[in-house]
Protein backbone atom coordinates (compact mmCIF):
# COMPACT_ATOMS: atom_id res chain seq x y z
CA UNK A 1 0.00 0.00 0.00
CA UNK A 2 2.84 2.33 0.91
CA UNK A 3 4.41 2.20 -2.54
CA UNK A 4 1.10 2.64 -4.34
CA UNK A 5 0.29 5.64 -2.14
CA UNK A 6 3.73 7.09 -2.72
CA UNK A 7 3.29 6.76 -6.45
CA UNK A 8 0.17 8.93 -6.32
CA UNK A 9 1.65 11.78 -4.25
CA UNK A 10 0.99 15.11 -5.94
CA UNK A 11 -1.83 13.71 -8.05
CA UNK A 12 -5.48 14.70 -7.90
CA UNK A 13 -7.72 12.06 -6.32
CA UNK A 14 -11.51 11.83 -6.15
CA UNK A 15 -13.85 10.40 -3.52
CA UNK A 16 -14.28 6.68 -4.06
CA UNK A 17 -10.66 6.03 -5.10
CA UNK A 18 -9.12 3.33 -2.96
CA UNK A 19 -5.81 1.75 -2.09
CA UNK A 20 -5.40 -1.83 -1.00
CA UNK A 21 -2.58 -4.21 -0.21
CA UNK A 22 -0.78 -5.44 -3.29
CA UNK A 23 -1.40 -9.13 -3.77
CA UNK A 24 2.09 -9.78 -5.10
CA UNK A 25 3.80 -8.35 -2.02
CA UNK A 26 6.11 -11.00 -0.66
CA UNK A 27 7.23 -11.26 2.92
CA UNK A 28 10.74 -12.41 3.65
CA UNK A 29 10.89 -15.15 6.25
CA UNK A 30 14.55 -14.75 7.14
CA UNK A 31 14.87 -10.98 7.52
CA UNK A 32 13.17 -8.98 10.19
CA UNK A 33 10.34 -7.10 8.50
CA UNK A 34 8.89 -3.96 10.00
CA UNK A 35 5.14 -3.72 9.53
CA UNK A 36 4.41 -0.74 7.34
CA UNK A 37 2.32 1.86 9.07
CA UNK A 38 0.49 4.67 7.32
CA UNK A 39 -0.87 7.71 9.13
CA UNK A 40 -4.03 9.01 7.46
CA UNK A 41 -4.78 12.72 7.57
CA UNK A 42 -7.86 14.62 6.39
CA UNK A 43 -9.64 13.17 3.37
CA UNK A 44 -8.44 9.59 3.87
CA UNK A 45 -10.38 6.90 5.69
CA UNK A 46 -9.50 3.39 6.70
CA UNK A 47 -12.09 0.74 6.00
CA UNK A 48 -10.97 -2.77 6.84
CA UNK A 49 -7.66 -3.32 5.07
CA UNK A 50 -8.39 -0.73 2.41
CA UNK A 51 -7.76 2.99 2.34
CA UNK A 52 -10.56 5.11 0.91
CA UNK A 53 -10.39 8.66 -0.37
CA UNK A 54 -13.37 10.73 0.77
CA UNK A 55 -12.51 14.24 -0.46
CA UNK A 56 -11.34 15.53 -3.80
CA UNK A 57 -7.91 17.10 -3.82
CA UNK A 58 -4.19 16.61 -4.13
CA UNK A 59 -2.52 13.75 -2.23
CA UNK A 60 0.30 15.02 -0.02
CA UNK A 61 2.99 13.14 1.84
CA UNK A 62 5.23 13.93 4.78
CA UNK A 63 8.15 11.80 5.88
CA UNK A 64 8.12 9.15 7.08
CA UNK A 65 4.56 7.86 6.60
CA UNK A 66 1.95 10.64 6.75
CA UNK A 67 -0.55 11.07 3.94
CA UNK A 68 -3.43 13.47 3.56
CA UNK A 69 -5.62 15.13 0.94
CA UNK A 70 -5.11 18.84 0.36
CA UNK A 71 -8.46 20.22 -0.76
CA UNK A 72 -9.91 23.61 -1.49
CA UNK A 73 -12.97 24.20 0.60
CA UNK A 74 -14.75 27.14 2.15
CA UNK A 75 -16.55 25.74 5.17
CA UNK A 76 -14.39 25.21 8.24
CA UNK A 77 -14.58 22.06 10.34
CA UNK A 78 -12.77 22.51 13.68
CA UNK A 79 -9.77 20.39 14.61
CA UNK A 80 -8.00 20.24 17.97
CA UNK A 81 -4.98 22.50 18.30
CA UNK A 82 -5.80 24.77 15.33
CA UNK A 83 -5.85 28.51 15.82
CA UNK A 84 -8.79 30.51 14.49
CA UNK A 85 -10.14 34.05 14.41
CA UNK A 86 -13.51 34.13 16.15
CA UNK A 87 -16.15 36.78 16.76
CA UNK A 88 -17.68 37.03 20.24
CA UNK A 89 -21.39 36.39 19.66
CA UNK A 90 -22.77 36.40 23.20
CA UNK A 91 -21.84 36.51 26.86
CA UNK A 92 -23.46 33.62 28.73
CA UNK A 93 -22.52 33.56 32.43
CA UNK A 94 -18.90 32.57 32.71
CA UNK A 95 -18.36 31.67 29.05
CA UNK A 96 -18.39 33.59 25.81
CA UNK A 97 -20.04 32.12 22.73
CA UNK A 98 -17.72 32.49 19.76
CA UNK A 99 -18.66 32.31 16.10
CA UNK A 100 -15.78 30.79 14.14
CA UNK A 101 -17.62 29.96 10.93
CA UNK A 102 -18.33 26.30 11.72
CA UNK A 103 -21.56 24.41 12.23
CA UNK A 104 -22.04 25.55 15.83
CA UNK A 105 -20.67 28.20 18.16
CA UNK A 106 -17.67 27.46 20.34
CA UNK A 107 -17.44 28.33 24.03
CA UNK A 108 -14.60 30.39 25.45
CA UNK A 109 -14.21 30.62 29.21
CA UNK A 110 -13.46 34.07 30.63
CA UNK A 111 -10.70 32.45 32.68
CA UNK A 112 -8.94 31.26 29.52
CA UNK A 113 -7.19 34.62 28.97
CA UNK A 114 -3.72 35.58 30.13
CA UNK A 115 -3.81 37.05 33.64
CA UNK A 116 -7.55 36.51 34.09
CA UNK A 117 -8.84 35.52 37.52
CA UNK A 118 -12.33 35.35 39.02
CA UNK A 119 -11.81 38.92 40.30
CA UNK A 120 -10.03 40.25 37.29
CA UNK A 121 -12.27 39.59 34.29
CA UNK A 122 -10.89 40.24 30.82
CA UNK A 123 -12.37 43.20 28.98
CA UNK A 124 -14.19 41.43 26.14
CA UNK A 125 -17.34 42.80 24.52
CA UNK A 126 -19.83 41.22 22.13
CA UNK A 127 -18.57 41.79 18.59
CA UNK A 128 -14.88 41.73 19.51
CA UNK A 129 -12.46 39.58 17.55
CA UNK A 130 -10.38 36.95 19.31
CA UNK A 131 -7.49 34.80 18.14
CA UNK A 132 -7.87 31.50 19.95
CA UNK A 133 -6.96 27.84 19.88
CA UNK A 134 -9.21 24.77 20.03
CA UNK A 135 -8.78 22.53 23.06
CA UNK A 136 -11.85 20.44 22.34
CA UNK A 137 -12.96 19.84 18.78
CA UNK A 138 -14.72 16.65 17.88
CA UNK A 139 -17.90 15.84 16.06
CA UNK A 140 -19.89 14.88 19.14
CA UNK A 141 -19.09 17.73 21.52
CA UNK A 142 -19.36 21.49 21.62
CA UNK A 143 -16.02 22.95 20.52
CA UNK A 144 -14.05 24.80 23.19
CA UNK A 145 -11.56 27.61 22.67
CA UNK A 146 -8.83 29.07 24.85
CA UNK A 147 -6.65 32.19 24.48
CA UNK A 148 -3.69 30.83 26.47
CA UNK A 149 -1.18 28.08 25.83
CA UNK A 150 -0.45 25.21 28.19
CA UNK A 151 1.86 27.36 30.32
CA UNK A 152 -0.74 30.08 30.81
CA UNK A 153 0.85 32.62 28.46
CA UNK A 154 -1.05 34.49 25.73
CA UNK A 155 1.52 33.46 23.10
CA UNK A 156 0.04 35.80 20.50
CA UNK A 157 -3.56 34.89 21.25
CA UNK A 158 -6.25 37.08 22.81
CA UNK A 159 -8.52 39.98 21.90
CA UNK A 160 -7.67 42.07 18.82
CA UNK A 161 -6.85 45.77 19.15
CA UNK A 162 -8.63 48.48 17.19
CA UNK A 163 -8.21 49.13 13.47
CA UNK A 164 -7.40 46.55 10.82
CA UNK A 165 -9.66 44.69 8.42
CA UNK A 166 -11.15 41.21 8.63
CA UNK A 167 -12.00 39.27 5.48
CA UNK A 168 -12.48 35.68 4.36
CA UNK A 169 -10.44 33.58 1.94
CA UNK A 170 -10.63 29.89 1.04
CA UNK A 171 -9.19 27.34 3.46
CA UNK A 172 -6.70 26.17 0.84
CA UNK A 173 -5.20 29.65 0.59
CA UNK A 174 -4.95 29.91 4.37
CA UNK A 175 -3.00 26.68 4.53
CA UNK A 176 -0.70 27.90 1.78
CA UNK A 177 -0.16 31.18 3.67
CA UNK A 178 0.70 29.36 6.89
CA UNK A 179 2.98 26.70 5.41
CA UNK A 180 6.56 27.06 6.75
CA UNK A 181 8.18 28.51 3.64
CA UNK A 182 5.20 30.06 1.95
CA UNK A 183 5.95 31.98 -1.23
CA UNK A 184 2.84 34.14 -0.94
CA UNK A 185 3.86 35.27 2.50
CA UNK A 186 7.43 36.10 1.51
CA UNK A 187 6.24 37.94 -1.62
CA UNK A 188 3.81 39.98 0.44
CA UNK A 189 6.35 40.69 3.16
CA UNK A 190 8.83 42.19 0.72
CA UNK A 191 6.34 44.46 -1.02
CA UNK A 192 3.79 45.47 1.58
CA UNK A 193 4.95 45.35 5.21
CA UNK A 194 1.87 44.74 7.36
CA UNK A 195 0.49 43.06 10.44
CA UNK A 196 -1.22 39.85 9.35
CA UNK A 197 -3.24 37.41 11.45
CA UNK A 198 -4.33 34.23 9.70
CA UNK A 199 -6.91 31.90 11.26
CA UNK A 200 -7.22 28.32 10.05
CA UNK A 201 -10.96 28.98 9.60
CA UNK A 202 -10.35 31.13 6.53
CA UNK A 203 -10.51 34.48 8.29
CA UNK A 204 -7.62 36.86 7.74
CA UNK A 205 -7.03 40.12 9.60
CA UNK A 206 -4.74 42.78 8.12
CA UNK A 207 -3.48 46.04 9.50
CA UNK A 208 -0.93 48.27 7.83
CA UNK A 209 0.23 51.89 7.78
CA UNK A 210 -2.82 53.30 5.96
CA UNK A 211 -6.37 52.30 5.12
CA UNK A 212 -5.52 52.33 1.41
CA UNK A 213 -2.58 49.97 1.92
CA UNK A 214 -4.77 47.64 4.02
CA UNK A 215 -7.41 47.47 1.29
CA UNK A 216 -4.79 46.76 -1.37
CA UNK A 217 -3.42 43.85 0.66
CA UNK A 218 -6.90 42.48 1.30
CA UNK A 219 -7.77 42.57 -2.40
CA UNK A 220 -4.45 40.99 -3.38
CA UNK A 221 -4.87 38.10 -0.94
CA UNK A 222 -8.40 37.43 -2.08
CA UNK A 223 -7.28 37.27 -5.70
CA UNK A 224 -4.33 34.96 -4.88
CA UNK A 225 -6.76 32.05 -4.62
CA UNK A 226 -7.03 31.45 -8.33
CA UNK A 227 -3.54 32.37 -9.48
CA UNK A 228 -0.37 30.43 -10.14
CA UNK A 229 2.95 31.55 -8.67
CA UNK A 230 4.26 33.53 -11.68
CA UNK A 231 0.86 35.21 -12.21
CA UNK A 232 0.82 36.30 -8.60
CA UNK A 233 4.34 37.70 -8.68
CA UNK A 234 3.50 39.60 -11.85
CA UNK A 235 0.39 41.09 -10.21
CA UNK A 236 2.28 42.06 -7.05
CA UNK A 237 4.94 43.75 -9.12
CA UNK A 238 2.37 45.71 -11.11
CA UNK A 239 0.56 46.82 -7.98
CA UNK A 240 3.78 47.91 -6.33
CA UNK A 241 4.82 50.07 -9.27
CA UNK A 242 1.38 51.66 -9.21
CA UNK A 243 0.31 50.35 -12.62
CA UNK A 244 -3.00 49.09 -11.26
CA UNK B 1 -46.33 -22.99 -44.44
CA UNK B 2 -44.90 -20.08 -46.29
CA UNK B 3 -46.69 -17.70 -43.93
CA UNK B 4 -45.19 -19.34 -40.91
CA UNK B 5 -41.81 -19.09 -42.45
CA UNK B 6 -42.11 -15.38 -43.01
CA UNK B 7 -43.34 -14.71 -39.51
CA UNK B 8 -40.45 -16.59 -38.02
CA UNK B 9 -38.20 -14.77 -40.45
CA UNK B 10 -39.49 -11.47 -39.16
CA UNK B 11 -38.96 -12.66 -35.60
CA UNK B 12 -35.42 -13.50 -36.48
CA UNK B 13 -34.94 -10.09 -38.06
CA UNK B 14 -36.20 -8.22 -35.03
CA UNK B 15 -34.12 -10.43 -32.82
CA UNK B 16 -31.09 -9.63 -34.92
CA UNK B 17 -31.81 -5.95 -34.89
CA UNK B 18 -32.10 -6.16 -31.11
CA UNK B 19 -28.80 -7.93 -31.02
CA UNK B 20 -27.20 -5.29 -33.15
CA UNK B 21 -28.49 -2.58 -30.82
CA UNK B 22 -26.87 -4.32 -27.92
CA UNK B 23 -23.65 -4.80 -29.81
CA UNK B 24 -23.57 -1.16 -30.76
CA UNK B 25 -23.93 -0.30 -27.11
CA UNK B 26 -21.36 -2.88 -26.19
CA UNK B 27 -18.73 -1.41 -28.47
CA UNK B 28 -18.54 1.80 -26.40
CA UNK B 29 -20.54 3.68 -29.00
CA UNK B 30 -22.66 5.36 -26.37
CA UNK B 31 -23.46 8.87 -27.41
CA UNK B 32 -23.86 11.58 -24.84
CA UNK B 33 -24.51 15.17 -25.66
CA UNK B 34 -21.64 17.54 -25.07
CA UNK B 35 -21.20 18.29 -21.42
CA UNK B 36 -19.25 20.82 -19.44
CA UNK B 37 -18.90 21.95 -15.88
CA UNK B 38 -17.64 24.81 -13.75
CA UNK B 39 -16.88 24.51 -10.05
CA UNK B 40 -17.00 27.13 -7.28
CA UNK B 41 -18.46 29.81 -9.51
CA UNK B 42 -20.67 31.32 -6.80
CA UNK B 43 -19.03 33.35 -4.04
CA UNK B 44 -21.48 32.90 -1.15
CA UNK B 45 -22.10 29.14 -0.88
CA UNK B 46 -19.54 26.69 0.48
CA UNK B 47 -19.55 24.72 -2.73
CA UNK B 48 -21.15 25.28 -6.10
CA UNK B 49 -21.13 23.88 -9.60
CA UNK B 50 -22.88 24.37 -12.89
CA UNK B 51 -23.30 21.41 -15.19
CA UNK B 52 -24.23 21.87 -18.82
CA UNK B 53 -25.36 18.93 -20.91
CA UNK B 54 -26.59 19.70 -24.40
CA UNK B 55 -29.25 22.38 -24.04
CA UNK B 56 -29.90 21.84 -20.35
CA UNK B 57 -27.98 23.56 -17.63
CA UNK B 58 -28.16 23.15 -13.87
CA UNK B 59 -26.77 25.37 -11.17
CA UNK B 60 -26.13 23.71 -7.81
CA UNK B 61 -25.06 25.23 -4.50
CA UNK B 62 -24.15 23.53 -1.22
CA UNK B 63 -24.19 25.08 2.24
CA UNK B 64 -22.75 23.07 5.09
CA UNK B 65 -21.93 21.61 7.51
CA UNK B 66 -23.85 24.48 9.11
CA UNK B 67 -26.04 25.11 12.12
CA UNK B 68 -29.25 23.08 12.14
CA UNK B 69 -32.73 23.84 13.43
CA UNK B 70 -33.49 21.95 16.63
CA UNK B 71 -36.57 20.37 15.05
CA UNK B 72 -34.51 18.96 12.16
CA UNK B 73 -31.51 17.87 14.22
CA UNK B 74 -30.47 14.21 13.97
CA UNK B 75 -28.19 13.15 16.79
CA UNK B 76 -25.88 10.82 14.86
CA UNK B 77 -25.67 12.29 11.37
CA UNK B 78 -26.08 15.42 9.32
CA UNK B 79 -29.47 16.50 8.01
CA UNK B 80 -29.47 16.77 4.23
CA UNK B 81 -31.97 19.09 2.66
CA UNK B 82 -32.43 19.32 -1.09
CA UNK B 83 -34.29 22.21 -2.69
CA UNK B 84 -35.06 22.34 -6.39
CA UNK B 85 -36.09 25.62 -7.93
CA UNK B 86 -37.70 25.53 -11.37
CA UNK B 87 -36.65 28.04 -14.00
CA UNK B 88 -39.88 29.97 -13.60
CA UNK B 89 -42.59 29.87 -10.96
CA UNK B 90 -42.79 28.03 -7.67
CA UNK B 91 -41.68 24.45 -7.01
CA UNK B 92 -44.54 21.95 -7.40
CA UNK B 93 -45.21 18.26 -6.80
CA UNK B 94 -42.83 17.26 -9.60
CA UNK B 95 -39.95 19.12 -7.96
CA UNK B 96 -40.81 17.54 -4.62
CA UNK B 97 -40.49 14.03 -6.04
CA UNK B 98 -37.22 14.95 -7.75
CA UNK B 99 -35.96 16.38 -4.47
CA UNK B 100 -36.68 13.14 -2.68
CA UNK B 101 -35.01 11.06 -5.38
CA UNK B 102 -31.93 13.26 -5.31
CA UNK B 103 -31.75 13.40 -1.53
CA UNK B 104 -31.75 9.65 -1.26
CA UNK B 105 -29.01 9.33 -3.90
CA UNK B 106 -26.84 11.89 -2.14
CA UNK B 107 -27.37 10.30 1.26
CA UNK B 108 -26.10 7.03 -0.16
CA UNK B 109 -22.77 8.48 -1.18
CA UNK B 110 -22.17 11.07 1.54
CA UNK B 111 -20.62 10.08 4.85
CA UNK B 112 -23.17 11.99 6.90
CA UNK B 113 -22.16 10.41 10.20
CA UNK B 114 -18.95 12.46 10.18
CA UNK B 115 -20.89 15.66 10.85
CA UNK B 116 -23.62 14.88 13.37
CA UNK B 117 -26.04 17.62 14.43
CA UNK B 118 -25.38 19.85 11.46
CA UNK B 119 -27.24 20.67 8.30
CA UNK B 120 -26.32 20.38 4.65
CA UNK B 121 -28.41 22.28 2.18
CA UNK B 122 -28.25 21.59 -1.53
CA UNK B 123 -30.03 24.04 -3.80
CA UNK B 124 -30.45 23.42 -7.52
CA UNK B 125 -31.95 25.47 -10.28
CA UNK B 126 -33.19 24.56 -13.75
CA UNK B 127 -33.81 21.42 -15.73
CA UNK B 128 -33.02 17.67 -15.43
CA UNK B 129 -29.64 15.95 -15.04
CA UNK B 130 -29.57 17.27 -11.47
CA UNK B 131 -27.47 14.38 -10.31
CA UNK B 132 -24.27 15.41 -12.05
CA UNK B 133 -24.47 19.01 -10.85
CA UNK B 134 -25.27 17.88 -7.32
CA UNK B 135 -22.28 15.57 -7.20
CA UNK B 136 -19.91 18.24 -8.49
CA UNK B 137 -21.20 20.78 -5.96
CA UNK B 138 -20.87 18.34 -3.04
CA UNK B 139 -17.35 17.54 -4.15
CA UNK B 140 -16.54 21.24 -4.43
CA UNK B 141 -17.77 21.86 -0.88
CA UNK B 142 -15.26 19.25 0.30
CA UNK B 143 -17.83 17.09 2.07
CA UNK B 144 -16.73 13.57 2.94
CA UNK B 145 -18.13 11.09 0.40
CA UNK B 146 -17.64 7.38 0.08
CA UNK B 147 -17.94 7.50 -3.71
CA UNK B 148 -19.07 9.78 -6.52
CA UNK B 149 -22.21 9.35 -8.54
CA UNK B 150 -23.53 10.44 -11.90
CA UNK B 151 -26.91 10.45 -13.56
CA UNK B 152 -27.62 8.97 -16.98
CA UNK B 153 -30.97 9.14 -18.74
CA UNK B 154 -32.03 6.57 -21.32
CA UNK B 155 -35.09 6.70 -23.53
CA UNK B 156 -36.58 3.81 -25.49
CA UNK B 157 -38.29 5.04 -28.63
CA UNK B 158 -41.23 3.46 -30.44
CA UNK B 159 -38.92 1.14 -32.46
CA UNK B 160 -37.23 -0.22 -29.34
CA UNK B 161 -33.96 1.64 -29.86
CA UNK B 162 -32.20 2.95 -26.79
CA UNK B 163 -31.23 6.59 -26.86
CA UNK B 164 -28.83 7.72 -24.15
CA UNK B 165 -29.12 11.26 -22.91
CA UNK B 166 -32.19 12.21 -24.99
CA UNK B 167 -33.19 15.76 -25.83
CA UNK B 168 -36.58 17.09 -24.74
CA UNK B 169 -38.10 16.31 -28.14
CA UNK B 170 -36.76 12.74 -28.08
CA UNK B 171 -38.08 12.32 -24.54
CA UNK B 172 -41.55 13.28 -25.67
CA UNK B 173 -41.56 10.73 -28.51
CA UNK B 174 -40.15 7.93 -26.35
CA UNK B 175 -42.05 4.90 -25.06
CA UNK B 176 -40.13 4.69 -21.80
CA UNK B 177 -37.77 6.96 -19.95
CA UNK B 178 -35.31 5.84 -17.28
CA UNK B 179 -32.87 7.77 -15.15
CA UNK B 180 -30.15 5.96 -13.23
CA UNK B 181 -27.69 7.16 -10.63
CA UNK B 182 -24.50 5.14 -10.90
CA UNK B 183 -21.70 5.08 -8.32
CA UNK B 184 -18.06 5.49 -9.24
CA UNK B 185 -16.61 2.72 -7.08
CA UNK B 186 -18.23 -0.33 -8.63
CA UNK B 187 -20.49 1.21 -11.31
CA UNK B 188 -23.58 -0.11 -9.59
CA UNK B 189 -27.04 1.42 -9.80
CA UNK B 190 -27.82 3.62 -6.80
CA UNK B 191 -31.15 5.05 -7.87
CA UNK B 192 -33.49 4.29 -10.71
CA UNK B 193 -36.42 6.38 -11.69
CA UNK B 194 -38.51 5.17 -14.62
CA UNK B 195 -41.53 6.22 -16.61
CA UNK B 196 -43.44 4.27 -19.27
CA UNK B 197 -43.50 0.55 -20.13
CA UNK B 198 -40.55 -1.70 -20.95
CA UNK B 199 -39.45 -5.31 -20.56
CA UNK B 200 -36.95 -6.64 -18.06
CA UNK B 201 -34.53 -7.28 -20.89
CA UNK B 202 -34.77 -3.66 -22.00
CA UNK B 203 -34.20 -2.46 -18.46
CA UNK B 204 -31.05 -4.51 -18.19
CA UNK B 205 -29.87 -3.26 -21.56
CA UNK B 206 -30.46 0.32 -20.44
CA UNK B 207 -28.52 -0.25 -17.23
CA UNK B 208 -25.62 -1.68 -19.21
CA UNK B 209 -25.68 1.28 -21.55
CA UNK B 210 -25.82 3.73 -18.64
CA UNK B 211 -22.90 2.05 -16.94
CA UNK B 212 -20.92 2.43 -20.13
CA UNK B 213 -21.91 6.09 -20.36
CA UNK B 214 -21.09 6.71 -16.72
CA UNK B 215 -17.44 5.87 -17.35
CA UNK B 216 -17.24 8.84 -19.69
CA UNK B 217 -18.78 11.13 -17.09
CA UNK B 218 -16.48 9.92 -14.32
CA UNK B 219 -13.48 10.48 -16.56
CA UNK B 220 -14.79 13.98 -17.16
CA UNK B 221 -15.16 14.56 -13.38
CA UNK B 222 -11.54 13.55 -12.91
CA UNK B 223 -10.31 15.81 -15.69
CA UNK B 224 -12.23 18.82 -14.47
CA UNK B 225 -11.12 18.42 -10.86
CA UNK B 226 -7.54 17.97 -12.03
CA UNK B 227 -7.83 21.18 -14.00
CA UNK B 228 -9.17 22.93 -10.93
CA UNK B 229 -6.23 21.89 -8.78
CA UNK B 230 -3.66 22.48 -11.50
CA UNK B 231 -2.72 25.85 -10.01
CA UNK B 232 -1.86 24.48 -6.58
CA UNK B 233 -0.02 21.31 -7.61
Automatic annotation (TrEMBL), chain A:
One of its GO terms (molecular function) is RNA binding. One of its GO terms (biological process) is exonucleolytic trimming to generate mature 3'-end of 5.8S rRNA from tricistronic rRNA transcript (SSU-rRNA, 5.8S rRNA, LSU-rRNA). It is found in: Cytoplasm; Nucleus, Nucleolus. GO terms for cellular component: cytoplasmic exosome (RNase complex); nuclear exosome (RNase complex); nucleolus. Residues 37-65 form the Exosome complex component RRP40 N-terminal domain. Keywords: Cytoplasm, Exosome, Nucleus, RNA-binding, rRNA processing. InterPro entries: Exosome_RNA_bind1/RRP40/RRP4 (IPR026699), KH_dom_type_1 (IPR004088), KH_dom_type_1_sf (IPR036612), NA-bd_OB-fold (IPR012340), RRP40_KH-I (IPR049469), RRP40_N (IPR048541), Rrp40_S1 (IPR037319). The keyword Ion transport does not apply. The keyword Cytoplasm applies. It holds the Pfam family RRP40_S1. Residues 164-212 form the K Homology domain. Belongs to the RRP40 family. This is Exosome complex component RRP40. It comes from Channa argus.
TrEMBL record, chain B:
GO terms for molecular function: DNA binding; RNA binding. GO terms for biological process: nuclear mRNA surveillance; poly(A)-dependent snoRNA 3'-end processing; rRNA catabolic process; rRNA processing; U4 snRNA 3'-end processing. One of its GO terms (cellular component) is nuclear exosome (RNase complex). Residues 32-144, 148-212 form the Exoribonuclease phosphorolytic domain. Keywords: Cytoplasm, DNA-binding, Exosome, Nucleus, Phosphoprotein, rRNA processing. Gene3D superfamilies: GHMP Kinase, N-terminal domain. Its main location: cytoplasm. It comes from the Eukaryota. It is found in: Cytoplasm; Nucleus, Nucleolus. Pfam families: RNase_PH (PF01138), RNase_PH_C (PF03725). InterPro entries: ExoRNase_PH_dom1 (IPR001247), ExoRNase_PH_dom2 (IPR015847), ExoRNase_PH_dom2_sf (IPR036345), PNPase/RNase_PH_dom_sf (IPR027408), Ribosomal_Su5_D2-typ_SF (IPR020568), RNase_PH (IPR050080). Belongs to the RNase PH family. Homodimer. Component of the RNA exosome core complex (Exo-9), composed of EXOSC1, EXOSC2, EXOSC3, EXOSC4, EXOSC5, EXOSC6, EXOSC7, EXOSC8 and EXOSC9; within the complex interacts with EXOSC3, EXOSC8, and EXOSC9. The catalytically inactive RNA exosome core complex (Exo-9) associates with the catalytic subunit EXOSC10/RRP6. Exo-9 may associate with DIS3 to form the nucleolar exosome complex, or DIS3L to form the cytoplasmic exosome complex. This is Exosome complex component RRP46. It comes from Channa argus.
Amino acid sequence: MFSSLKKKVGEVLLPGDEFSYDTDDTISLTEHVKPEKVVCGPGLRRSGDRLLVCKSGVLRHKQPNMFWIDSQQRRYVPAKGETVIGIIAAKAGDVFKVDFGGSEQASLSYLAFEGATKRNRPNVQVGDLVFAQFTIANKDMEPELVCIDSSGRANGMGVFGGGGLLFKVSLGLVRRLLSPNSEIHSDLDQMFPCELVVGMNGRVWVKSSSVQQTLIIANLLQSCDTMTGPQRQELFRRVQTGAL
Amino acid sequence: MAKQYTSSFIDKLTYQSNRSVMEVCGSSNVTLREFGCEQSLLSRPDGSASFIQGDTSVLAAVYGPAEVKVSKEIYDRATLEVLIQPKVGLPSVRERSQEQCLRESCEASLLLSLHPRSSLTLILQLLSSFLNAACMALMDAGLPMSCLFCGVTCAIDADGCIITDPTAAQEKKSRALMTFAIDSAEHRVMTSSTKGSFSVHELQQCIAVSQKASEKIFQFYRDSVRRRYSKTL
